[in-house]
Amino acid sequence: MSISSILREDALEYHAGGKPGKIEVKPTKSTATQRDLSLAYSPGVAEPCLEIAENVEKVYDYTAKGNLVGVISNGTAVLGLGNIGPEASKPVMEGKGVLFKVFSDIDVFDIELAVTDPDDFVDTVARLEPTFGGINLEDIKSPECFEIEEKLKARLKIPIMHDDQHGTAIISSAALLNALEIVDKKIEEARFVISGAGAAAISCVKLYLKLGARIENFYIFDKDGLVSEDRPDLNRYLAPLAGKAGRTATMAEAMKGADVFLGLSVGGILKPEMVATMAANPIVFAMANPTPEIGYEEAKAVREDLIMATGRSDFPNQVNNVLGFPFIFRGALDVRASEINDEMKLAAAKALACLAKKPVPDIVNLAYNEKSLSFGPEYIIPKPVDPRLITTISMAVAKAAMESGVATKPIKNWDAYETQLAKRLGLDNQVMKFILKRAKSKPKRIVFAEAENLKVLKAVREVLDEGIAKPILLGRKANIDAICEEHHIDLGDIEIFDFKHPDNAGLLAEFAELFYEKRKRRGFTKWEAEKQVRKSNYFAAMMLETNRADGVISGLTKNYPDAIRPALQIIGKKPGVTKVAGMYLLLSKQGPLFFSDTTINFSPSVADIVEITELTSEAVERFNLKPKIAMLSYSNFGSADGEDALKMRAATHILQDKHPTWVIEGEMQAHLAFDKELRQQNYPFATLGNDTANTLIFPNLSSANIAYNLLKEAADIEYIGPILLGLRKPVHVLQLGASVREIVNMVAIAVVEAQSV
């Protein structure tokens, strides 16, 4: 968990900005009226209290217990940081809570205990059982973590898991099963060398044994050497895994002819010459973080027949606990399991292994800039962004809980449960990940027209760190350097272009002449052309036009018309396009929503709306999503004949004729775009069918802009845009006062667009 000094300030600002920390509690019921409050608290709250008092199981019906997990730690073994104490561990526990919510829609209270004695820890947590539906133990040192989990499982009747042990065991088991299948080796015959003998290593070995491995085939090494039965220092959890006395003494010797190396220790401990002595088609899981026991390239350079996994995301086959714990708890909570047992862990591992063999969704390929990921040596385990994880693993865990007799609320309708799981998470936590990954695959030159700005420079630093683009800054170098020095922003040797410097007089003259030629029949004189190109947003557009850049970001400190005008005057529209449009992406819990036209066309004609819809559909597809388009009005399918209704109706018919395979319907009121039950009941002919719309086309600028701004503010939805559609080259105009995150998102979109120009 070490972090570079460059990112230190950003990390601290991220955690301190706005509300300190990363999580908050929000009400799930309306509190708008006095009646709401009287139901939420006194006197209405007495009714569910009395129901629960009569039947304690009703606590799951009337409270959040069934979807609430306690992430509990004493900070004695924080990954990569060691024994830093409970307070210092809190950012990590909050982060774990974020992952639970983002990946499986589970709510979390993080609890940091100032307790190191195992019995005191157990007593404290046991008293919390009425609050939580499950307990995730985290970052507790070995061997106390074994005792704590063991005693809590014996005392409590809710699912408990120490993720540091079992998470790695479950995920690596899935990877191991698939790797062994690829190299055609049987687990019961495979010989293992394990580097590390802590909580994760012990749990891995135990789970591998349940998968069929044999204890006599394990050689386990810790900092004191081979774990063998003649060592008096072994704790009661490690001792049963010890090998016979007098076996191979060194790891280098044990590696000769070994089939599998499992690293859960320290970086650099596995040497290339050791890998060279392994059996044919060896398997190496080097999972120390952030530095593996051996580097990926280093190991592959020694053995071409090697299958390798690490804990890192920048190499194939990442063993990441986020592939397991959110979905394991999801399944356990949904059947109200009394524990997380070995059957559930094995079910999770096998389900994860099977998922890797299935065709990979395009949305995952896009995220990793792959044309077609498929099962093989470099894809033995699914990617963390795979949207199928929540259904695949949660359902497998729930079934295993039922079959092993620990489920107290069995699932009866599995199709309905699968639909429920899929609905829990929209694509809001995925879409920008895909765009960012794609941008990183082929960064482009993006010129920032307003570089003498702190937000822009912070965004540029993030763009550099993430490898999203190759930034070019327009501005006075002295001013930019001063801002960077004051705020500790290291931009390295980034290109800063002081276009007003005397050295650039020739380029200014060239741009002025080009601009004059473009606009001389629009009333511009040469003197006016020279004046215009000395403005940063005009100069930036000229850099793009003359192929000195691949995209432009501007508008942070300018009003929208002034910011977009250079793009229209210099870059112009794509061939065949008559109207440029503006689109916003809103990241809602139900998934991404695309709004058009929100920024440019005041009262578009039928032909304009047809073109705007086609441009929007094309843009949505760049996000690797299928557009499901609703043509909005105050009228439903001919119920009124006002100007806007007629316009949207006519545009819908034209688009349906031109694009018969599209999912597009209208004209309709906005709520029908989402209320599929009401739509099917009253308008069963609608082509949206059982879908909800993700692309909304409005009859005029006023309605689109009002709807977008109301939803953005009232619903606290993250937004991206405006995204300009129809320009010949990528120019994107920021909203006044856009945040650093919004700037970075727009840069990524500009890069992806530039990749296809």
From TrEMBL:
Malic enzyme N-terminal domain: residues covered: 20-153
Source taxon at top rank: Bacteria
EC number: 1.1.1.40
Signal peptide region: none
Domain Malic enzyme NAD-binding: 165-402
Keywords: Multifunctional enzyme, Oxidoreductase
InterPro entries on file: Aminoacid_DH-like_N_sf, Malate_Decarboxylase, Malic_N_dom, Malic_N_dom_sf, Malic_NAD-bd, Malic_NAD-bd_bact_type, ME_PTA, NAD(P)-bd_dom_sf
An MF annotation (GO) of this entry: malate dehydrogenase (decarboxylating) (NADP+) activity
Similarity comment: In the N-terminal section; belongs to the malic enzymes family. In the C-terminal section; belongs to the phosphate acetyltransferase and butyryltransferase family.
Protein name: NADP-dependent malic enzyme
Species of provenance: Aquirufa novilacunae
